[in-house]
């Protein structure tokens, strides 16, 4: 069951869902979601000596990317057809009885900004800043600002307690993220 605004607020106030920094409910709380803000860490692909990404044969994806950190409130320009990995300002901790789902905001989608292209599910027991995949499928550059509302998270109760929450999984690659993180899929194909 998806949590309503009342249930989201109560779960955060009771410390069941942890959000740091604490949300401004008047600004961030929707009928069934909580808006999250754009952080200040971005990863972009730099011009590379690689002409392709080979997931099985040693391509170091992190080496292919450059981290850009901007000041709070500063701008970041995403050009048409660009792909950027970004992070939320908020750190979220989910209990083993609940999952989260991240969606883009309609107002930004209408500009051509695609937010969190895939893998929108945050497993029970997940903790960290949400990393988003941003894409500008429009025809003009879009200026984003650190601290602007960028996405919304919905929360869903599980039918029962998760047997192995995310942080207890042996292969949790993205736990406790503090900055934009490149793909680690090549770890699976070794």
UniProtKB/TrEMBL annotation:
It is an enzyme of class 3 (hydrolase). It holds the Pfam family DCD. The keyword Iron-sulfur does not apply. One of its GO terms (molecular function) is nucleotide binding. Keywords: Hydrolase, Nucleotide metabolism, Nucleotide-binding. It catalyses: dCTP + H2O + H(+) = dUTP + NH4(+). GO terms for biological process: dUMP biosynthetic process; dUTP biosynthetic process; nucleobase-containing small molecule interconversion. InterPro entries: dCTP_deaminase, dUTPase-like_sf, dUTPase_trimeric. Its EC number is 3.5.4.13. The active site is at 133 (proton donor/acceptor). The keyword Flavoprotein does not apply. DCTP binds at residues 105-110, 123, 166, 173, 177. Pathway: Pyrimidine metabolism; dUMP biosynthesis; dUMP from dCTP (dUTP route): step 1/2. HAMAP family: dCTP_deaminase. Catalyzes the deamination of dCTP to dUTP. Belongs to the dCTP deaminase family. Homotrimer. This is dCTP deaminase.
């Amino acid at each position: 069951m998806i949590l309503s605004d009342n249930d989201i607020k109560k779960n955060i106030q009771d410390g069941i869902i942890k959000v740091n920094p604490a949300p401004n409910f008047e600004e961030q709380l929707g009928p069934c979601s909580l808006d999250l803000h754009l952080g200040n860490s971005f990863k972009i692909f730099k011009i590379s000596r690689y002409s392709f990404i080979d997931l099985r044969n040693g391509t170091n994806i992190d080496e292919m990317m450059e981290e850009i950190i901007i000041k709070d409130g500063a701008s970041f320009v995403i050009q048409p057809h660009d792909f950027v990995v970004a992070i939320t300002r908020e750190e979220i901790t989910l209990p083993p009885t609940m999952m989260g789902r991240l969606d883009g905001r309609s107002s930004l989608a209408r500009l051509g900004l695609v937010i969190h292209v895939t893998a929108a599910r945050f497993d029970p027991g997940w903790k960290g800043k949400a990393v988003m995949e941003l894409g500008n499928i429009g025809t003009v550059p879009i200026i984003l600002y650190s601290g602007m509302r960028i996405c919304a998270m919905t929360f869903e109760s599980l039918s029962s307690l998760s047997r192995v929450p995310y942080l207890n999984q042996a292969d949790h690659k993205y736990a406790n993220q503090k900055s934009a993180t490149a793909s680690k899929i090549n770890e699976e194909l070794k």
